[in-house]
Amino acid sequence: MLSNVEEIKSKLDIVDLIQEYFPLKQAGVNFKATCPFHQEKTPSFMVSRERQMWHCFGCNEGGDMFEFIKRIENIDFPEALKILATKAGVQLKYQDPKTTSLKTRILDMNEKATSWFMSQLINSAAGAHALKYLKEARELDDQTIKDWQLGYALDSWDALGEYLRSQKFTKEEIIQGGLVVTKSGGYEYYDRFRDRIMFPILDYHGNIVGFTGRTMKADEQAKYVNTPQTIAYNKSEVIFGLYRAKQYIKDADAVVIVEGNMDVIGSVKGGVKNVVAVSGTALTEEQIKILQRYTNNIIFSFDADSAGLRAAERAIELAWRAEANVKVAVIPHDLAKDPDELARKDPAAWQRLVAAAVLAMDYFFSLNLASYQPGNIESKKTAAKNLLNLILKLASPIEQDFYLKKLAEKLDINETSLRDVFYKTKNKTLSSKAPASTPRQIQPTTVIDKKSAVATRLLAFMLLDRDYAVYVSEIFSPHYLPAAWQPVYKALVVCYTRQISEANLSADPIEYLIKKDPGLTNLANSLIIKKEELRDLSYTEAVHEIKQHVSYFKKAFVQERQATIKEEIKALERITSPGDEAQTEKIAALLRQFNELSAELNDTDF
Fold first, then answer.
1. What is the SS3 string spanning 232-274?
2. Which pLDDT score, from 0 to 100, does residue 479 have?
3. CA neighbor of 115 nearest in space, from 177, 180, 165, 160
4. Rounded to two decimals, what is the model's pTM?
5. Which pLDDT does position 499 carry in this prediction?
6. Residue 604, pLDDT score
7. Separation CA 590–CA 584 (nearest Å)
8. Is residue 279 classed exposed, middle or buried when 0-12, 13-18 and 19+ CB atoms within 10 A define those classes?
9. Which of 25, 266, 325, 534 ranks highest by number of CB atoms within 10 Å?
């Protein structure tokens, strides 16, 4: 029987998995991209579909799909196991300390809570008024309610908490999950959500990480209550609706961002399915980056009130800083107050509005010039100031130039004068943001170790062809290599020697290498990927390159040994007194070694 890990690996493809995070380009039989784990300009992150593994030749990190999820999500193995099990549709067969953590327990608890909320909405008399509201006021049918797993939290102080205790969750787990509020003293609690319609919040892997609860009480101050920040629910990263929308976002190459959960549900019901909402917080840089995994085209459609416009402006500025292409779908006041209302009243109108979304800066021009009075100098100055401040926030110099020209035309003012004001404001803004005395910190880039890179190619040749392996083993000693690569080289030589003696030509050197020392797996995987890059070389080209690599290591070894001898001679000369024959002989011996190494450097075999 397959283990959980083996079953997951049999059902998922690492290339498809990684492409959920960033695009990969075909490179022969492998795929490549710039590495997400260090700064680089030339792609050195490689993925092998054949071996179901990845390796970066820049930072020398690598592994399987589990290691990738752990690194990219900054999580431990139990969380990675749960995420990949969900993607693969694998039911985890057992739970023990190796595969269970507080986070996975909270995720399990959220699933139980969701089922309980749904049952209270559909089956309980207490939830009848909430179900009536969803069906009549919000016009949701049974299938939509089921699809979005909507539920109802009873108007009770302890109903949910008691249910979770009956499901074998501990007090500590229930408190850490955020479904309850602790009383004074810290260990007793009461239900956080009471008499509320419940919207489960899924992360982009499909895990239920939290909830939004909409009150059913007319006099309730807090209309919406959200799960607080927990180990499972990071408000700055979670995006409501993304799990359902991500394929539609890819297909449309655009994402529509609305304000509320019901705006998302209503929009999907109204035919616009590439839609998401920010839940429980203002839009963040992390959320923008997550969305940019799927598209760089963002359409905002916030409520048409003043608060909605302010939220839209803040969000647009953030998207501009991330160099996204930003548009706005403005809902006219006479049509509806929000996307949900418009999608219910006239689905076709909502679809047309999204399709006709205008560039965000063009939207701001229309907004700021709506009351502009051409003959009034104060009106001209106000419009110029407001729009210049917005143009400053564009990340692209090309866009800035375009809109400066447009602003000069619209306001009928001299473009040079406008640009003078723009650059003065820009310089002032940059000066005010710069630290007074601390120099600007530059994030370091990872320097690729040349010796490791050359070792990878040399040993990959040995994997590529038995003749290359035998040739290298006859002319090359392991001590020329960096220490980390010496056991790999020795194991390969032993493997090929054993195969020749046993006539076992089908043995896989990599399997032999990893079985001999599992700690060499990452280096072995890097050789597999590098081997594919070398297949197109002719025999003559390959032998020439192998000789170059051997020469490089021999020269480096000799030069390093010579440098060490020089230091040893200098040290002896400082402590050797005249007539000290023993020390003089040591110096002479070191000089002979130095001269022998110099002769090696001149050897034509190099």
1. CCCCCCCEECHHHHHHHHHHHCCEEEECCHHHHHHHHHCCCCC
2. 87
3. 160
4. 0.69
5. 59
6. 45
7. 10
8. buried
9. 266
Of 178-187, 273-282, 318-327, 577-586, the one with minimum mean pLDDT is 577-586
Question: How many C-beta neighbours within 10 Å does residue 114 have?
Answer: 18
- Token pair of 424, please? 């003065």
CA-to-CA dists, residue 297 to 34, 256, 274, 423, angstroms: 21, 9, 11, 28
Fill in the amino acid letter for 104. T
* Of residues 490, 482, 493, the one with CA closest to residue 456: 482
Beta-carbon count within 10 A of 64 CB: 17
Q: Which of 156-170, 285-299, 523-537 has the lowest mean pLDDT?
A: 523-537
* CA distance linking residue 8 with residue 15, whole number of Å: 14
- Cβ proximity of 462 and 499 under 8 Å: no
Helices 450-464 and 521-534 cross at an angle (nearest 10°) of: 70
Distance between CA atoms of 30 and 138, rounded to whole angstroms? 50
Other C-beta atoms within 10 Å of 417: how many?
11
Describe the crossing of helices 539-575 and 581-601 by its angle, rounded to 10 degrees. Answer: 160
- Picking from 212, 213, 210, the residue whose alpha carbon sits closest to that of residue 202 is 210
Of 244, 213, 237, 239, whose CA–CA distance to 227 is shortest? 213
Cβ 496 vs Cβ 466: under 8 Å: yes
Q: Where are the beta strands (DSSP E) in 261-410?
A: 275-278, 297-300, 325-328, 358-359
List the structure tokens of 262. Answer: 């019901």
pLDDT at 308: 58
Tell me the domains of the chain and their CATH numbers.
Answer: 4-88 (3.90.580.10), 101-233 (3.90.980.10), 236-358 (3.40.1360.10), 371-432 (no CATH), 450-601 (1.10.860.10)
CA 264 from centroid of its chain's CA atoms: 24
User: Distance between CA atoms of 535 and 514, rounded to whole angstroms?
Assistant: 23
Q: What is the DSSP letter of 486?
A: H
d(CA 197, CA 216): 7
Give the N- to C-terminal CA distance of the chain in Å, as an integer: 54
- Both structure tokens of 172: 């500590």
Residue that wins the pLDDT comparison between 595 and 468: 468
* Cα 260 to Cα 303: distance, rounded to the nearest angstrom: 9
Q: What angle do CA 206, 208, 210 make, to 5 degrees?
A: 140
DSSP string, 172-230: HHHHHTTSEEEPTTSS-EEES--SEEEEEEE-TTS-EEEEEEEE--TT-S-SEEEPPP-
